[in-house]
Amino acid sequence: MAAQAVVFVFGVVLSAALAAAPFRATTYEFDDSSGLGRKFDGIGGLSGGGATSKLLVNYPEKQRNEILDYLFKPNFGASLQILKVEIGGDAQSTDGTEASHMHNSWEENYQRGYEWWLMVEAKKRNPNIKLYGLPWTFPGWVGQGTRNPFHNPKVTADYIIRWVNGAKVHYNLTIDYVGIWNERPYDITYIKTLRQMLNKSSHSHVRIVAADKKWVIAEDILKDSGLAQAVDFIGCHYPGTTSTEEAMKTGKPLWSSEDYSTFNDEVGGGCWARILNKNYAVGYMTSTISWNLIASYYNHLPYYRDGLMTAVEPWSGNYSVDTPIWLSAHTTQFTDIGWSYLRHGAGVGILEGGGSYVALVSPDGKDLTIIIETMSHNHSKCIRPPLPAYDVVPQTMDIQLGGSFGNIPQMEQWYSKLGFSGQPTTMFQARQPVQFKNGMASLTLGVDEVYTLTTLTRGHKGQYPAPPPSKPFPLPYTDNFESYALYQEPYNLAQQTGSYEIVRGDASHGQVVRQMVLQTPVHWCRADTVNKSVSLIGHFHWTDIYVEVETSIGTVNNTDGVFVAARVQHGGCQAFSADGIFFFIFPETKAYIVANDLARTQVLTKGSLPSQLSAWNKLSLLVKGTQVQGSVNGVSVFTITAPKATVNGFVAIGTDTYGLADFDNLKITTAADGAALLGQSRVKDTLYFTPERH
User: Fold this and answer.
1) Are the CB atoms for 153 and 190 separated by under 8 Å?
2) If I label 202, which of 211, 317, 463, 657 is the partner at 20 to 30 A Cα–Cα?
3) What is the pLDDT of residue 379?
4) CB-based burial of residue 388 (10 Å sphere; 0-12 exposed, 13-18 middle, 19+ buried)?
C-alpha cells in the first residue's frame, strides 16, 4: 500500500483521506429496554486542599455574587451539584493553611475560616447542592504527640463529628459526606469507629467516602464485611478515567473524588470535558469533583489557575469565566443527582472515531440527556503539562432512540468547540433542536467538540457585564484589623503555616491579628516541619519595598520571636524552604537575626536590639536594590547588602516558633515612601510587575 500524506487537524495526526471527509457513519443505540446503569451522584468542585478560595472572600460584593452565581446558581453557569470543602487543620495543604474549628482540645469555634461562608452561599443558590467535608491536616493535639491522626480513633472521630455538628448548629448546613484523610494512609479501625459514632449521634445520615487516595481500599472492603458496611462510596483521586476490578466487585458507587488539577484554558477545558464523560464511560464513576473549585490565591503559589475559573484580584474586582465553567454546564444543567445512566452499549460508550458519549435518564423516565465529547488535547490524568493528543477524527454519529424514548420528536441541542491553532472557541451555544424521524437522527461531529442533546428546556448561558479591569496589588497598603469580625482570617494575608485570626487586643490596640497554633500540627506536607508560621501578602514581583508592623509577644503559650520579611520566594508545601529577607526579633533576649531563609539556616547578620523595648514593638524593613535596612521602634538596627539571588518576592509576617503572637497596624509601601517614614532622603523606586493572565 502506498504511503499516505498526513496533515494536522487541531493537533491530531490524520491521514489525508480522513482529513478530507468525515469518518464513516456509525449507529449508536440509546435504549432503556434492558434496564439502566448506575445512579448519577453529581459533578462538583473542591474548595480547599490549600486555601484555594482565599482571595474570593474579599471581593467587592457585586463581583463576588457574580462569581458565586457562575459556580453554583442552577441553569446559569457551572451549576455545580456538589461542594467539597477542606475541614481545616491549621497546617499547609497545598496553597495555604485553613483554620481548624478546634485549635486546641479545650475549645471550639465555628467563626473561623471561610468554608462556612462558602457553603452557605452555595446553599442559597442551590438548596439541593450536596456538601462534603474532608481533612487534609489535623491540629497537633489530635495526634496526641504522634504524626498519626488515628492514634486514638475515638478522639479523631469526635473531632470530625463536632465539625459536622457545628455546620448544623451555627449555619443550618447539613453535611452529606465526610472523608478520612486526603491522599494519606487510611485506618480501618478509625473508619469503623467514625461510622459507629456517626450512627449514635444525630448525624447518622452522613455517608462516608473512602479513602480519597487510589482504589486500594477496595481490596480491604472485599475482605472485611465491617469495613464494607462502614464505607458508602469509594473515592479515588486522579484515576485517569479507569477503575479496578476489585473496585467494581465491591458493588459500591465509585467516585473520582478529586480530579482535573489542570490550567483552566482551552486545553484544560478539553481535559475536564473528557473526564466528565469518560470517568463513567470507561471507569463507571458516578461523581467527579474538580480540584479546584476556583483558583483564588496569589500567583506563584503552587498550581496557579488550576480551577474551574479564576478570581485573584479582590482589590480590582477582576475575574475570568473560563472554559471549564461551560463544559461543566453541558452535564450539570441537564441532569440532577439521582438520575441514572443508561447501560453501556445502550447509551454509554466510546465513539468509533474517538471521543465518548453518555446518556442519563430522569427518575420518572420522562427525560433523557445525551452528552457527547470528541476531545483530543488532554491527558487521561488531567495534570499539566498536557501529554500527547488522543486519536480523534471527524465522524458522523447516527443516533437510534429506542425503548421509552423511541417516540421523542426532537431534542434541544447545546454545542461547544475548543479553539486550537488559531481556531475560534465557542462555548455553550444553543442550537436548533435535533429532529428525530422514527427514532433516528444524525450528527456530524468535528474534533474538540461537546454536544448535549436533551428533552429538557431549562438550559441557559448566564452572563454578567465584563468585570473591572485588572490592577496590581495596591500600594500603599495598610490594615489595622479593626473592620473584621472576631475570629475572621485577615483577607489578604495568605497564611502558609500557622493560623492567623482576629482577636481583641489591649486597650491601646483594639483588634489585632494573632497567630494561634501552639504545636506542630499533624501535617500533610513538609511545610510545617520548619516549626514556624508565615503569612504572605502582596505581589511576587515586588523588588524595592518597605514593610512595618507592630508586634507583641505574651508570656503564656507564646512564641520566642516574630519577624517581618520581604522578597519571599516560596509558599505552599515548599514554605519550609522559603527564601527571602527575614528580620527576626526576640524581645525576651533582646536579640535579632536577619536570615536569607525562613528556617534560619542562612544567617546574614545578627546582634542585640536597642534597650527601649516595650510590650508592643514596631518592626520596619526597607529593601532597596542591594541595600537592606531594619529598624525597631524607629531606631535603625542593621544595614546590610542583600544576597544577589534575593531580588523579588512577597512580603510576609510570622513567628519563629509555633505559639501566640499579636500583630497590628501593618503597612506596606514603596521603598521611597518607606525611606521618608524613616526620616531618610527620598530614593527612586523600582517596582517590577510581570503581566499576569487572569
Assistant:
1) yes
2) 211
3) 52
4) exposed
Are the C-beta atoms of 50 and 96 separated by less than 8 Å?
A: yes
First to last CA, the chain: 51
What's the gap between Cα 446 and its chain centre?
32
**Alpha carbons 549 and 568: distance in angstroms, whole number:** 16
Handedness of CA 85, 86, 88, 90 (dihedral sign): negative
Q: Helices (DSSP H) in 43-137: which residue ranges? A: 61-72, 115-125
Is residue 656 within 8 Å of 562, Cβ to Cβ?
yes
Q: Pull the grid cell for residue 511.
A: 483588634
Active-site residue, selected from the candidate residues 66, 258, 373, 548: 258
For residue 255, how far is the Cα from the chain centroid? 18
- What is the structure's pLDDT at 678? 87
Q: What is the pLDDT of residue 266?
A: 87
Is 66 considered catalytic here? no
What is the torsional sign of CA 622, 628, 632, 633?
negative
SS (H, E, C) 179-199: CCCCCCCCCHHHHHHHHHHHH
Amino acid found at 46? L
Helix (H) or strand (E) holding 231: none
Q: List the grid coordinates of 588.
A: 525576651
User: What residue ranges of the chain have pLDDT lower than 50?
Assistant: 1-21, 380, 384-386, 681-694
Contact 86, 48 (CB under 8 A): yes
pLDDT score recorded for residue 22: 52
Which residue among the candidates 108, 183, 219, 352 is catalytic per the annotation? 183
DSSP for 507-567, written as a single string: TTT-EEEEE---S--B-SSGGGGG--EEEEES-TT--SEEEEEEEE--SSSB-S-EEEEEE
pLDDT digits (tens, 9 = 90+) for 386-398: 455 678 999 999 9
Query: What is the per-residue pLDDT for 420?
Result: 81
Active site residue 183: yes
Using alpha carbons, list the distances in angstroms from residue 132 to 38, 230, 321, 370: 21, 17, 24, 27
pLDDT for 136 = 98
Q: Exposure string (b/e) for 191-226, b if CB count within 10 Å is 16 or more?
A: bbbbbebbeeeebeebbbbbbbbbbebbebbeebee
Q: Which three cell numbers stand for residue 19?
A: 482529513
Dist. CA 560–CA 583, nearest whole Å: 14
Query: Measured between alpha carbons, how far is 170 from 152 in angstroms, rounded to an integer?
Result: 27
Element (H, E) at 359: strand 356-361
The pLDDT assigned to 690 comes to 35
Cell numbers standing for residue 215: 482504589
Distances (CA, A) of 403 to 406, 411, 540, 568: 6, 16, 60, 64
